[in-house]
Amino acid sequence: MFRMKISDTKTFKSVLNAISTIVDEATFNIGPDGIRLRAMDPSRVAMVDFEMRKTSFDEYEAGEETKVCVNLSELLKLLKRAGKDDTIEISLDEETGNFLVRIKGRYVRTFNIPVLEASEEEVPEPKISFNAKVTLTTDDLHETLEDAALVSDNVRIETDGENLIMNAKGDVAGAKIEVRKGSDALISIEAKEPSRATFSLNYLTEIVKAASDTSDIVTLEFSTDMPIRLDFRQRYDGKLVYLLAPRIEVE
């Protein structure tokens, strides 16, 4: 048994869209306490860790924990039909095993979408210690990455505990972006030791752009040549966290 109702359609659509930057077929763990997902992209470069607790919904009912896999692009295609004043109801049809998606507003639309075979793979929570921690506005992070993407496909992120610096170098041009301590963009910064690592802008810009619709503040954690953790503070009761593997620079 599973049934949920949510009136904050914008946030719900946005968070599913953010997850879809990493996976298209998403296997959700649906249980009495809410919905969870931890998955890696097909190339195993990025991971998303999502949770939306039952208190985030207007109504929520679920029996024993079960796995449900759905094609996110197909689901989002339906959810995009919901306006800001509509409510979304999703339930599991026990007869067909399909998702029933009901959009209620000035009139009622009911769609059904097949449930796919759920992945048996359990992605463990990574145990990584980070030396640097930087919290800034999501919009400002997105803008800095867009600047870096003008000249390169990769960006080196570094900090000495005082400033956040992004360096991008392409075949023709380069860019250096500094977010300095005390600026409105930088909320907090700390580092046990100077840290730097290089990441793919294709992944980073897509993740941050999508997550910016659900979050105003993001915390970056990283160490030299190690993965980066992006924790987007959510407006609902839950979490949206990404982990992205570094690119190894060849000097």
Mind sketching the topology for me?
Layout lengths: L1 E5 L2 H11 L5 E7 L2 E7 L5 E8 L5 E4 L3 E6 H8 L7 E6 L6 E6 L3 E6 L18 E6 H12 L4 E6 L3 E7 L4 E7 L5 E6 L3 E6 H11 L5 E6 L5 E5 L5 E7 L7
Antiparallel strand pairs: 1-5, 1-7, 2-3, 2-6, 3-4, 4-18, 7-8, 8-9, 10-14, 10-16, 11-12, 11-15, 12-13, 16-17, 17-18
What report would you give on this structure?
The chain is α+β, with helices and mostly antiparallel strands and 251 residues long. The chain folds into two domains: 2-113, Proliferating Cell Nuclear Antigen; 132-244, Roll (DNA Polymerase III, Chain A, domain 2). Helix content is 17%, strand content 44%. The chain is built from four helices and 18 strands. The chain has helices at 9-19, 72-79, 138-149, 201-211, and strands at residues 2-6, 25-31, 34-40, 46-53, 59-62, 66-71, 87-92, 99-104, 108-113, 132-137, 154-159, 163-169, 174-180, 186-191, 195-200, 217-222, 228-232, 238-244. The strands form three sheets. Strands 6-2-3-4-18-17-16-10-14 form a nine-stranded antiparallel beta sheet. The chain has a five-stranded antiparallel beta sheet with strand order 5-1-7-8-9, with helices on one face. A hairpin with a 5-residue loop joins β16 (217-222) and β17. α1 (9-19) runs antiparallel to α4 (201-211) and α3 runs antiparallel to α4 (201-211). The longest helix is centred in the middle third of the chain and has 12 residues, at 138-149. The protein is elongated.
